[in-house]
Structure formats: structure tokens, C-alpha cells
């Protein structure tokens, strides 16, 4: 039996043995471009704190945009209009306050939808439409695997993984958790990457994008209590417009 790679361990832990290639081979699944490939997988123990931050920022979103986005063609699959989507958070490896930050991200998208979509937390895994896992190790801030029901063309479930260990100070760690949850939930409800730096759905292109992005958000805060507040939602006007255009 061949040795397990980091990708094998990561997806075995989360998806019970499914690897990205398993999902990609299913034509009913819409999976983010190149989700099967971890870009710049890092070993934290071998790096200085500064190198850890830069490489982690570089690895998160250096995935190419999907062909659909590049071509500007048909809209993404999404949930039915006015759907109530139940979100379950696995708390086994959740960092302090992590599940609360996911819940804030859910509320942010719900408010932005203006009644078109509701993300609602459930404590019962079997009731979940979206599952959120916090994962130790790996090389990305987050990954999302939505599933599209072939008969309807709608998303009917999604799995999200968020990094549980980010080597930064406590406030920045909360910022990263909230913004990563916001970004990955965006994918789980059908939104694609963008090229606009102010968007939560922005696709990181350079190693310095992460520190700049998180730093810009931090400048909006007086304290950790402001994360996800009305004055620091993390969404741009274009994010809100994309959501409402998708659900109409």
C-alpha cells in the first residue's frame, strides 16, 4: 500500500475516505477549479513565523479561476430561491470562538441576501445541508466542495474545511477564521472568485495579498467584537450584488 500523502490524510479525516478526485469524477459535483491540488503545501515546524504567514497567504487561493468565470458565461449553480440552508459546525478541532465566527459569517450572508436565502445553524449533523470542519495541518485557509443535484441543477449540499491552526496573533487569527468562513460559505452558496481586491470572493494572486487583505479588514475594527458587525461585514457592494443577482 503506498504511503498516504498530506492530501490523503486531509480528505480521509474530513470526508471519510473520499479524495478530491473521487468528487471530481462525479459529473453531478461542481467542485472549485483545481481543488484536487494543494498549492504550496507547507510544513509549519520548519519555518519562521514570517515565512509561515507569507507562504500560507500564498497557498490559499493561487488556484486559476474557473473557465466559466474567465469566459463570463452561465451563472453558477446555487440553492433554490428562499431556501433555508442548515449549517452544522464540527466543534472537535474548532479554535476558540471559531464556531461563533462561522455563525457570524452565516448571518452576514443571510442579511446580504435580503430574504433570498437563509443560512441557519443546526446542532444536528444529520439535518445539515452544509458541513463545516476545522482542520489541523494542510496548506490552505479553506476548501469547499459543493454538490449539485443533477435532476434540478441546484446545489443540495456542501462540505467546507477551514484551517484550525494559523500562525498569527490572536486577533488576526479570528479575522482569518471569519473571513475564511465568509469566503468558503460564499462558494457553498454558489459564488465564484473575483479579481476585485475589496471583494470577499477575491482570488489571492500574490504572496502579499493575504497580509494586505487581512490588514485592511483589521483597520475597520476597534476590537474583536466588531468582527462581522454592520461596519465590518467583510462584504463589498459587488459581493452583495453578485449574491442578489444569483438569487432572483
Task: Describe the secondary-structure layout.
Layout: H1 6-15, H2 20-24, H3 49-60, H4 67-71, E1 83-89, H5 98-113, E2 117-121, E3 130-135, E4 142-148, E5 155-163, H6 170-188, H7 209-218, H8 237-246
Helix pairs in contact: 5-6, 6-7
Structural features, described:
35% of the residues lie in helices and 14% in strands. It starts with 5 loop residues before the first helix and ends with a helix. The protein contains eight helices and five strands; from the N terminus they run ααααβαββββααα. The radius of gyration is 17 Å and the shape is globular. Strands 2-1-3-5-4 form a five-stranded mixed beta sheet, sandwiched between helices. The chain has 248 residues and is an alpha/beta fold.
Task: Give the tags.
248 residues
Helix-strand category: alpha/beta
Largest sheet descriptor? 5 strands, mixed
**Gross geometry:** globular
| Oligomeric state of shown chains | single chain
What portion of residues is helical? 25-40%
What gyration radius follows from the Cα positions, in whole Å? 17 Å
Number of strands: 5
The proportion of strand residues reads: 5-15%
User: What is the terminal-to-terminal distance?
Assistant: 50 Å
Mean pLDDT across residues: 77
Spatial ordering of strands, largest sheet: 2-1-3-5-4
* Element-level helix/strand string: HHHHEHEEEEHHH
Poorly predicted ranges: 1-71
Number of helices: 8
Amino acid at each position: 500500500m503506498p504511503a498516504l500523502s498530506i492530501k490523503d490524510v486531509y480528505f480521509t479525516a474530513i470526508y471519510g475516505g473520499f479524495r478530491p478526485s473521487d468528487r471530481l469524477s462525479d459529473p453531478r459535483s461542481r467542485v472549485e477549479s483545481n481543488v484536487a491540488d494543494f498549492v504550496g503545501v507547507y510544513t509549519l515546524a520548519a519555518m519562521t513565523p514570517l515565512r509561515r504567514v507569507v507562504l500560507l497567504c500564498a497557498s490559499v487561493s493561487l488556484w486559476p479561476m474557473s473557465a466559466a468565470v474567465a469566459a463570463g458565461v452561465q451563472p453558477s449553480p446555487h440553492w433554490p430561491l428562499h431556501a433555508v440552508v442548515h449549517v452544522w459546525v464540527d466543534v472537535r478541532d474548532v479554535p476558540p470562538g471559531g464556531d461563533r465566527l462561522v455563525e457570524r459569517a452565516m448571518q452576514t450572508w443571510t442579511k446580504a441576501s435580503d430574504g433570498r436565502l437563509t443560512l441557519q445553524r443546526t446542532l444536528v449533523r444529520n439535518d445539515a445541508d452544509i458541513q463545516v470542519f476545522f482542520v489541523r495541518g494542510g496548506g490552505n485557509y479553506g476548501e469547499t466542495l459543493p454538490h449539485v443535484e443533477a435532476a434540478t441543477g441546484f446545489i443540495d449540499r456542501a462540505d467546507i474545511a477551514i484551517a484550525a491552526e494559523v500562525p498569527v496573533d490572536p486577533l488576526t487569527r479570528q479575522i482569518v477564521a471569519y473571513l475564511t468562513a465568509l469566503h468558503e460559505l460564499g462558494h457553498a452558496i454558489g459564488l465564484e472568485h473575483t479579481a476585485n481586491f475589496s471583494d470577499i470572493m477575491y482570488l489571492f494572486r500574490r504572496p502579499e495579498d493575504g497580509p494586505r487583505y487581512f490588514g485592511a479588514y483589521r483597520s475597520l475594527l476597534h476590537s474583536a467584537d466588531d468582527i462581522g458587525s454592520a461596519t465590518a461585514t467583510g462584504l463589498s457592494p459587488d459581493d452583495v450584488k453578485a449574491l442578489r443577482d444569483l438569487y432572483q
